Amino acid sequence: MFSKRNLVDVKKSTSKVQDPKKDLPTRIKHLKVILENVDIAEAKGLFEANFSHVYNILYDSFIQAEGNLRQRELSFHLVHKAHKEELECTLWILEQVLCLLPELIHKRWQLHSLGRILSKLLHPGNSIKLRRQAIRFFLMWYQALNDNAPDYVHNMFQTLVPGFHNPATVATQISGSIFHDTSAQHPVTPTELLAVLPPSGGEKAPDHPSKFFLEALLEHMVHTVVKLEWQDKAAHHHRCFHFLLEKFKTFYLMKIFPNFSYDTSLYTPNLDLPVLRKPEAESEFIYCRVSLIMWIASYLHQTRKNIDGGPASMTHSTNSAPVGSHEDETQHESAHPSLESTISLQTNKTASDEELSAQIVREVLCSSRDNVNFVHEIYRQAFLINFSHVIAIRKIIAVYKDLIQLNVPEIPSYMLEPPEDCPRYMEDMNPESARPPRLRNDSYLGAIHKENLLVKAGMQNVLQLFMTHAANVFLLEVNPHIPKLLEEQTDACKRVLNIYRYMVMNTRMDSSTWEQLLLVLLQITSLVLGENPPRKKMSSLGGKLAPAIFQTLIVTWIKANLNVMISRELWDRFLLVLTSLTNWEELIKEWAKTMETLTRVLARHVYNLDLTDLPLDRLMEQKSKRGRRLVSRPESNTQCNISEHVHSTVCRQDSSLPDGNVLRKRAKHGLTRSYSETSLNVKRRSSQRQKNSKHRRSLSLDNIPQLDTESTDRTRSPSPAPSSGLESNSIKDSPIQLDVLSTENSTSESSGEHRGVVCGGTIRGWLPDVAVILWRRMLGALGDVNTITDPKLHSQVFEYLVKLIDTLIKIKQNQGISVDNQSTPPAPELIPPLTLILPWCFGALMLPDDFESGKLSALRLLCTVTLNCDHKHRNYLPQFYRFLHVALVGNSKPFLNTTLKFLGPRFLSLQLPGFSLLLFDLIHACNTVLNSLENLEGTPRTEAISIIANLLSLPDDLNNMSVLQLEENIHVMFCPDIKEHVVSFLLRAGRREPKGKARCIALSALGMFVYKELTNQTFHPKVSEAVNVLLLALKFNNKIIAHLASNILFLLCDHASLLWTQYPRLGNAVIHTLCAALFLHAPLGSTAGESDKALGTALLLCLGEWCMKLEPKRLLEVSEYGEERGSCLLLQVFTVLYKIAMGKASADNPGGLSQPSLNEDFDPNILSDDLADRSSPSLSPSKNHQCQKAITLCAKTVLAHLVTHLGHFPMAIGAARLSSMVVEHDDVPNLTSDELSASIFSAPNIQLFMFTENVIASLIELPVLDLPGGGVTAGLSTADKQVRVLLRDLSGKACWDASILYRSPESDSSDDNQQVDFETTSNQTKWGPMSIQPESFLVGSSTNLPQRAMRHRSPNVLPDITNSAQDLDQLDDLLQYLGHTSPECLENFDRKLNEPAAPPLSIEIEQEAIASVINQRNLEVEENRVMQFADSMLGQPISRPSSRSEGASSPAYDNSIQQASSGIIEQNAFQQCRLLFSQLGLAGWERRQQLHLLNKTERLLRELRNLDSQRCRETHKVAVIYVAPGQEDKNSILSNQGGSAAYEQFLAALAWEVELEGHTGFLGGLQRQGSTGLTAPYVATSFSEAIFHVATRMPGDTPETVLNKTKHLGNDEVHIVWSEHCRDYRRDIIPTEFCDILITIYPLGNNLNRVTVNCKPDVPQFGILFHEAIVENNILAGLVRATAICASRAKRTTLTFYQQYYEERALSLETVVTKHKHNTTYEDFISRVYSPIATPSPFCVSGSTSSGAGDGPACTGNPSMLAAALLDSHGHSHKPNQRNDSKFREVVSASDAARGVWFNNNPDVSQNVESTSISPRPLKKISSSLKSVPRRSLRQEAQDSPPESPQQSTRKK
Questions:
Q1: Shortest CA distance to 1116 belongs to which of 1134, 1105, 1129?
Q2: Which pLDDT score, from 0 to 100, does residue 753 have?
Q3: Which of 82, 252, 1626, 1711 is the most buried (most CB within 10 A)?
């Protein structure tokens, strides 16, 4: 081990140490060499061999150092420093002697000498540092002596700490004779004991010397034990510390703890409840007490984190001394710093020594029952200490916390469970096997092996002792004027409560432990909290701790009942305590939270529902898919891994983290509806696992089972054991979780018993019966709540009861919900007890007025429970009616408002027995609410209006019903005028109601009232007034209400004819007011949005519907009264539509229409706007422009619609078809294609035009069609050809057939064969009303034109009506008169005003122009004369047929078509079309800007086909679903193939039943082949059509058909549900992304139905039917139909890119116009009118180029085509075979309807020659220039001309 040199040095040094002749420094030097080069064992042997030499060195060194230190005459600093080093060397030798020679010391070796040395070192006059070292040396010497120590040594021990014993007695004993000298005269006496090293001048004495030296004593008691090198260390170490501990108890304990109780026992615990106590007076011993407590706790407090090397929360380091020792020691380091230096490595403390000494302390303290009891009594004393020393209290709390939470590396032996038979157990076990696992080496005595069995007390005793002793913390009366002490006490109490909570939630306790805990908490609650809380709660302990105490008490009580049987006496005491503390608001709040949690437990275990994941919530929010995804996640991703045996409360420190056990539950039972269904199975499995490890549970933390926590409520999670700094605040934010399963279950469950411990069974944890009992007991824990004296707290109790009832109602609604939606579960056997609290409510209503708030809540509860409970539980109705009557007729407005708000319209639809008694009360109450304008937001005005509105639907025999009088006493009377009252209230509300929703309901009710009266034809006297209110509402400033009024008028349109018949003025007013409202609302402001656009559109469509319903006859009636006298309604309508379409409408300029006058009793504004306009105003000009454009387009559509369809709808084909199905090639010979094709472009009789940007027209000339019976021209003589006009515009496609009518039926048949020359008969023809001027009238020379000479009056005669004549020019004579009478008006005195001005050019240029025109004319006449006999120019002779049959299509027409196809063009193939084109004025120059041809291309055909396939009306598809009784799932509902009789009657009234196979209207996705049913309800007007997807009409016998049915129904935005089930229908039964509006009908019997309207939040208000309306059977279908259509329109306004049908058609028409318009010159255009397929003109030179888009060759290089058009019939107009019938007319008819045109009422329709001429050149100039006609002949011709014929006058120049 050593080198040779070292070995020689050791031997050499040993010899020198043994040599007494060597000087002392040399011997000390060699002694150091020896100890530095040998190990401890060799050093011990060397010391034992040379003990006398070693002690000699020690004694000499001490004497020398002592003598040197006492020298006063030398320099103090130099000598003193050197001498202190000598003293240090001496102390080092002393320490080596004490460490290495314990056996010799034990034999009293050098007893007196060592005693005297130590006495000198312990002298009170020494420095503090030396005294602390002396204490250490003395303890080493004292424990080595052990029992051999004499009495004076014991006395020295008790004087180590100053202040405990008088040191004088000890000094006397030491100074006695130490020799056996019997001489009394000269005894040998020692010198006086003096201080060895007095303190320096700068050294400061400790503030608390007793505390300081006691801490040193306690510290060195531990650390010196392992320093002595005994031969048998293990036995001696334990014996030495045991010796020191016992001596310490003997001499110091009673001084430190005067009240130390030896009765405290962990084995027979004294569980007397503590009482209130006063604080103890401060003394020096209290500081010592704190030090001792901290010393005990520091060595017994170990945590797993400390052992692992991590920081421990709230724990002092195991290896460190008490805190106070370090603080005081640092004050004396500067006194003698040299004493800090170390000489030998052996004096340094090593980590192993620290651990070993700590282990020895722990084992000795836990080695016997006395020591265990001693420790726990120390702990109890800590709880009794004043809060100025709160550090000790916190320390002991932390010790207990870690013990109870088992946060220790090894379980103390006293916590182990004792054997069942302790004596027999000790005899049979061998000592080695008796040692418990993980318990380290036992005590030094062999008997300790047996003692270890006796110290086992068990966990329950520890818990009972702790909970009893810790209660003392609460019961110290702290001075309230010292806030710091109160804060410290509050903090400590919260820490204790946290441990209580942990025990409650996580620790297994037996019956006695639970009972003790309950008693302790009751004691704390009753003593800390008085019956009346203090005014300043925060200045008292009770005020600060009240929430935590109440929470801990209540939760503990519930958990105790889940685990053990609690006696009735204890329950009574619990009830007594709580009822005495009902004045504490904290109790009320905690009771409410507890009831909330217990209700959640009740829902889970009794009703199998999880309130945090209800079936309805999952269905509504579609969480099922996300739930499945959550289950599929691996468990390792959860916040608390299941495999870790860490308690779940660790995870709940952050309330936002989910409970890992909840995720585990979901992962295991993801397919079950509620997690509580399998909870019992989980508990069984956990109990089986825990039975196997039960005997190991108390031994190791690893075997402690994890709690099965199931709750997901994060607000009631268990309170985790808080960490050091946050502990005081944790209790308020960490409530205890109640709804958890117990950790273990009794094995009796497997034997078939299923009763909880609260019921006398043995099953622990939650069971259905346990949940019910605890819920009811805790509900009544406050006693009778009406005995609470504080009105505020009484109100809080009832506010929570309202929440409780809402939760119970939610549970009731979620019962029986189908999870898979495939079948309806049976009705639940158990339903929530809604009526349980009604006695409290009735009692509360009889309290004084001071309790008004609570009484209002009680009244609310009564109403809510009545509306939601089952009818069989409504056995309290008489009492309920009594209180309702008092509330409704009383003077208290809050009671009145509460009653109406929570009864609502649903009360009437319940039709409770005897409810009609309250009808007059309800009317009076509603009237009272509506008459008051106070607190518009808080009063139930909407509910009041709804109740009033529903009263209208009740039977008409209400007058015979008995009602209660309007007084508090009960008296019955008859009220014959109830209905009149109701109508009056509604009229007043419609006029003046200031709240938005209430006004809407009032208007809807008025509309329903009018609709009902018109349907039943009862004609109530106030119908007219109701309609007037609705009309006034059209001009409402609020757009939503105006829109609603428009929808109501749309509803009344069903009875428009009846309304007009019964109330003619009203019919006129409806149209007039709609027009005026359009002027008000159609011009949009700068911030207009979608709501403004929707309002304008609704008004336009409503106006169109009314016009179509009223028909032309009524619209054309001339008004005989009012401002519109002399005009018809149709004129007003067209005026409004035209101005809006042209953008000329404005509210300031209504275009001659007056605004509807505001009645003085009508308010067009609302004060409280609760109508959410979900469309934000448009702030962008582009958006505003789009909205205005949409309204303009709608106006154009309505205008075109009325022009086309007014008087023609429905046509013969039926209402299902609006647009014509005729296309261009229909009825055209040789064109037989099925759809539009390019062949129409080559037909000579078809031409396509663009009339305007929104009108495309096709002119087709056809042979006369042979109609059955001759059609409308039967018996008339017409041409052999007819013209067909196809119009495509915004309103759709219309087809008109026109024929020339030759003879009226009144004409004489004898004139058939007469030939009348045109020249002689034209002037005598009287044109009829249906005639159109023939084109041939214009043909001929200018001499044939009728001319008329002009006469003049005298210049001084004023022209007026009295002197007018046909040949007098009024304007000309007026100018002549003005110039004659007022010559100042003349520009030139030489020229009269009526004389023409001079030409702008010279006379020569004018004459030259005239000559050029004449020459051109002559050339054309000559060319005409030459070419008139050519084959291509000869016209066919016209034969006059006698009837339509004679004028039928001839082979000649077919030949012309064939010739056209072969390139030979017949010019007469388009003759009739040209004639009609000219007569319609389309050939005029002024029409040229809008009139264009179309490029005939294949793309044009595609566009036309697309246009023809587009909708021409608004279309709606609505789902209709039938729910039979007992059906609440999708599969059952959609499998219905029929419904009840009432349902079928409703469908029959809703719409027409049509067969889908032959249906030509809107199908809404239904198939004609029968896969979606054979029939469907369908309804249509000329503006809209709706088809109803009826579930019972579609096949549903297989899953595939049900799926197909679901697709059709699910895609509809509006659902109508007829439900005969006892529960309300839910929109999630048929899950869909649509179903934005749900209208549900519940038949009530008695010819009444309850209707609910449920909308998604984004749907704007649309009205008609309101929520919870009561409707009669006979008007139900009409109201539902109109509501569904308006709802569909309202939903579409929210769709961003939705376009109305007319907007789509406008885009298509715009595409045709912009992409296919053929821009041509006027000449080319006229040539295409002349002939759709152009042929080479005879005026064209050969080889000329052709142009045009598919129109055939054209001559563009020569303008002669214009002449060809002008001379079309001129060449053969005078042929003798051409006759002109005097009755020449043209008949225009609609081919699809075969009906006449209604608007040709004017008997004289004439056309101006110039307006019908196809030439743009004025005829007047040409004729006047060619020839001068004598005046006489002109005058004669003028006499025979028609009255309106053009007249010309020839003037002399």
A1: 1129
A2: 62
A3: 252
